[in-house]
Amino acid sequence: MPLWQGRFGKALDKATNDFNSSISTDSRMFREDISGSVAHAAMLAKQGIITPEDGAAIVAELGRIRADIESGSLLIDPNAEDIHTFVEYELTRRLGDAGKRLHTGRSRNDQVTVDLRLYLRSQIDEVTAQLHSLRTALKEKAAEYPGAIMPGYTHLQRAQPITLERHLGAYCAMFLRDIDRLNDARKRMNYSPLGSGALAGTTYPIDRTNTAAALGFIGAMKNTLDGVADRDYCVELAAALSLVMVHLSRLSEELILWCSWEFRFAELDDAFSTGSSIMPQKKNPDIPELVRGKSGRVFGDLMGLLTMLKGLPLAYNKDMQEDKDAVFDAFDTVKLCLTTYIPMVETMRFLPENMRAAAAGGFINATDCADYLVGKGLPFRDAYKATGELVAFCIRTGRTLETLPLDEYQAVCALFDEGVFEAIRMENCVARRGM
Ligand code: ARG
């Protein structure tokens, strides 16, 4: 039964009812819808807008409805227009007139965005907890290989030696920024739109500060049109989650490379790898690949939200019902990815000998060789050129800087002495940079 009877002479066309309904998406907010209504009803009674008896009956019955939905004894009607309609209808079915008084001084337009803010607040807390766990997993994994040296890359070409700890630490820094970004968005969205009504506020002497405080908001939103029309928080969260996916996707790309026979820097545990239906030798990194692939969904959610909002006149428009599918999908996807990713990182192993061997090739200590000459008084550009000549000579003759005899060094630059071999030793290159 819709909430908007009286004006209409006919029931809504069945297919149109299904099209218009958002219950399949928003029923997950039943707890938040009930919390919002409890705060609203208590405030109405406190302000003398409804009687204390009606207020108490509504609050108590809403508690029972919540318990009944949780226990499964009350099934959410899939034909209801949305979760707000369903809860109010059920309350009225149980209480009669008292139930019909709940919606005094309120509209679904302020109600839906209260529910969504409350629901997303808890989603943020869940994702940030997961991101903290992932950071811990990465830190602990690095600590299993103290001082392990690997090639650092630019342009995917071996560049300078680094430690595994520094490499994984880069991802810890990214995920820390993600946590900050989500918490920052949480602060900005943590204001209550209740009291905005449909768009123009209400004529009842409601207390917006009271409901805001009861629901854990920092305060009430100032402008009532903004209160019902603002979905910035959905966009900010989808953007912050998109960056989480960018970071997960970049890490995934590296794990996929590192697990290849070409690199052999790392191996995923069998419990987090898959095989091939035809090639018996295969062990595939499906999990990081799938995470890399799923990043596109979250970017799509962000684009969908921006596009849905950009042409909307104030205040509420039904287009906005699409907000929940997008922002829920973004949260669901990130949480799903992290749930598998954290134990995958915890159980993977690195192959430090292979990383060390790769670091020994590719002349990644050439910068240190040039720096050594700078230490002998040569200007950096000259030192760079001399080292470049040595590298070219090594490539031509199949040698490395470590195995090149001192007289070959001195043939290029007389400033070289025995000290150069200590200067270009990989461990020293890394230690000098404080890694
Ligand atoms: N189901 C709607 C939504 O998700 C609730 C708000 C409906 N308001 C309205 N005036 N039709 O946005």
Q: Can you describe this structure?
A:
There is one protein chain. The protein has 435 residues and is mostly helical. It folds into 3 domains: 5-104, Orthogonal Bundle (Fumarase C, Chain B, domain 1); 109-357, Fumarase C, Chain A, domain 2; 363-433, Ribonucleotide Reductase Protein R1, domain 1 (Orthogonal Bundle). Helices cover 63% and strands 5% of the residues. It is built from 19 helices and 6 strands. It has helices at residues 14-20, 23-26, 30-46, 52-71, 83-95, 97-100, 108-143, 164-189, 208-214, 224-229, 232-258, 286-309, 322-347, 352-360, 366-375, 380-397, 406-412, 419-423, 426-432, and strands at 149-154, 157-163, 191-192, 219-220, 266-267, 349-350. It has a two-stranded antiparallel sheet with strand order 1-2. The protein has a two-stranded parallel ribbon with strand order 3-4. It has a two-stranded antiparallel ribbon with strand order 5-6. A hairpin with a 2-residue loop joins β1 and β2. α11 packs antiparallel against α12. It is elongated and about 100 Å long. The protein starts with 13 loop residues before the first helix and ends with a helix. The mean pLDDT is 96. The structure holds arginine. Arginine binds next to α7.
